[in-house]
Amino acid sequence: MDPRPHVALIGMMGSGKSTVGFWLAQSEGLRFVDLDAAIEERQGRSIQEIFQNDGEARFRDMEQSELTECLTSEQPLVVSCGGGAVLRSGNRALLRKRAWVCWLRASIETLSRRVRSGDNRPLLGEDPVADLIQISDARAALYHETAHRVIDIDGLEANQVAERIRLIRPQQTAAR
Ligand code: S3P
What we know:
Blueprint: E1 6-10, H1 17-28, E2 31-34, H2 35-43, H3 47-54, H4 56-72, E3 77-80, H5 89-98, E4 99-105, H6 108-114, H7 128-146, E5 149-152, H8 158-168
Parallel strand pairs: 1-3, 1-4, 2-3, 4-5
Helix pairs in contact: 1-8, 2-4, 3-4, 4-5
Bound molecules: shikimate-3-phosphate (S3P).
């Protein structure tokens, strides 16, 4: 059994994890899981609604159980994690153990161009740039600790990032 069959994409909201993950999975013939979309589908409501009605802690529980379910599956897949999936140490350990983890690192300029407040992003308030700076600073060490590789995505299109990942990812996570 391959101990690390999966590819996981981590990074801040707006770093393009979902689009890159989709392209990567397509080109490699792998199953694709977008963690936020999987939670929304299971819950039958948006991330925004979950945060509003149940609070962040409950959302993190859902995120952890969804991540665990997908990373414990034997079928190799590409998973795009929500930006905060690295907050729990159990998630970080599981990610490193079961996936080859790539951090899509972006500047605040890139992130803020791509992200708008109210855009199903409950952690961003009146001043999304200030929020992005604060969240990014608070999480940088966690992304660093969790990732096997880092890709700086500023100035790259999603398909270029996906191509880069294809070139650098190790063989044991290749499709079987
Ligand atoms: C979050 C990022 C979001 C989503 C939720 C919380 C975060 O996912 O999981 O709003 O804590 O950074 P994306 O990174 O896909 O936007």
